[in-house]
Amino acid sequence: MRLTAENLSARRGQDLIFKGISFNLGTGESLVLTGRNGSGKSTLLRVVAGLLHPETGRVTWHSDAAESGMRAAEACHYLGHRNAMKAELSVFENLSFWKEFLGDFEGGQGVSISEAAEAVGLGDITHLPFGYLSAGQQRRMAFAKLLVAHRPVWILDEPTAALDVNAESVFTNLIKAHLADGGIVLAATHQPLGLENAKELPMTGFTGVMEGMW
Ligand SMILES: Nc1ncnc2c1ncn2[C@@H]1O[C@H](COP(=O)(O)OP(=O)(O)OP(=O)(O)O)[C@@H](O)[C@H]1O
């Protein structure tokens, strides 16, 4: 399995945010995006997840089962800054929705709702409305979404924001387990995630610079 980005550039409004970004990630590999606020980390993650069109370049997914040069987005889970859960629905209902909506990608199977909640340390509160949970508990449950449906690629934007030390290590262990299972991880973070063998992509950004100037 391989995730390939070739010569990506992206625009937000009139500004080109980055250009010429290429990378190749294989089974068990991770790439951590670093850089100051506004340098384009979230923009790049959204391009890879298929939520934004790149200005140039493409992101493709290769595996024995995939058609050649398949769009990578279908192989990706995306955990953005927001948790993508309905406050008035219970945790169980939210996770059930995502499990059914996403389904499993080839080559793996998601775990049950209760197993996913247990894995993030919150097995006993799935009956509560999502909106009742603390900020850190909400983030943990958003992470549980990654576990209920199988996707080989995890795209994580500041996954450990609002988390206590225990949750950080829970997330790190879940990410390591995903990599050990042959998954791929692409993460933007200001805090080290504790992934020993991660590659780093420092983002410098072209924020505020018009295309004609560079
Ligand atoms: N819709 C938009 N229109 C114009 N500019 C935008 C738009 N969305 C984002 N930007 C700009 O794009 C740049 C990159 O933003 P992005 O969110 O990718 O940065 P980031 O590196 O993830 O930052 P942070 O570390 O603060 O999360 C920023 O300067 C931002 O103001």
Description:
Residues 3-213 form the ABC transporter domain. It comes from Neorhizobium phenanthreniclasticum. The structure is a single chain. This protein is α/β, with parallel strands linked by helices and 214 residues long. The protein has one domain (2-213): P-loop containing nucleotide triphosphate hydrolases (Rossmann fold, 3-Layer(aba) Sandwich), CATH 3.40.50.300. The chain is built from 5 helices and 9 strands; from the N terminus they run βββαβββαααβαββ. The protein has helices at 41-48, 91-102, 113-119, 135-148, 165-180, and strands at 2-12, 15-26, 30-34, 56-62, 70-71, 76-79, 153-157, 184-188, 199-202. Strands 6-7-8-3-9 form a 5-stranded parallel sheet, sandwiched between helices. Helix 2 packs parallel to helix 4 and helix 3 packs across helix 4. Residues 207-214 have low confidence and may be disordered. The structure holds adenosine-5'-triphosphate. Adenosine-5'-triphosphate binds next to strand 2 and helix 1.
